[in-house]
Amino acid sequence: MGDLLIVVMGGAIARFFDLKEAEFPELESGPNLMEIHKIGNPEKGLRGRELYTDLKTGRGRAPMGGPSHGYDDHRDQHHDESDRRFVKRISDEIRALFKKMNPKKIILVSPPKMLGFLREELEYTKMKGLAIVEVQKDMSKFSPLQIQSQLSKEGLIPARKRPKE
Questions:
Q1: pLDDT tens digits, 6-33
Q2: Rounded to whole angstroms, how far apart are CA atoms 75 and 68?
Q3: Which of 22, 32, 1 is nearest to 147 (CA)?
Q4: What is the secondary structure of 72-95 as a DSSP string?
Q5: Between the CA of residue 62 and those of 59, 71, 72, 98, 100, what are the distances in Å?
Q6: Residue scoring higher pLDDT (57 or 101)
Q7: What is the crossing angle of helices 75-101 and 112-122, to 10°?
Q8: Helix, strand or coil for residue 61?
Q9: CA-based angle 5:29:9, to the nearest 5?
Q10: What DSSP element (H or E) covers 18?
Q11: CA–CA separation, 161 vs 152, rounded Å?
């Protein structure tokens, strides 16, 4: 089809899809969601001590065994900054695919927080003549068939049809 770009992202992965018609509709189901590219967020794969020196947040001990006290080590800001860097990579890829494919419509599927970061980064107004649809769901771990089923239920893309007999 080529006039549609679907971007499905979560905190750890972004997947880019195109909708392709069946080559032989009398023998194959179609149209089919085809993954054309994938980007991973290496920071989401890090755990525990690879990111922080102290695994627990929010409490410390006073010297000489005194009472514990609370503190904020700004982990939420660190996670947000990691997501912003990842969204920057995603937006760069969207721009590159936009130039290459020249789609008429982009469907962005993501949790709300990531969509907010993407809106800031992409500047939709610079993509003239383009319909941008946002779906606020985390489908990043769904299979292409599950993604297509969900998006077709919402009327955003055509459902798969059985082979013609």
A1: 999 987 899 999 998 877 766 767 788 9
A2: 20
A3: 32
A4: ---HHHHHHHHHHHHHHHHHHHHH
A5: 10, 12, 15, 55, 59
A6: 101
A7: 60
A8: strand
A9: 30
A10: strand 13-20
A11: 11
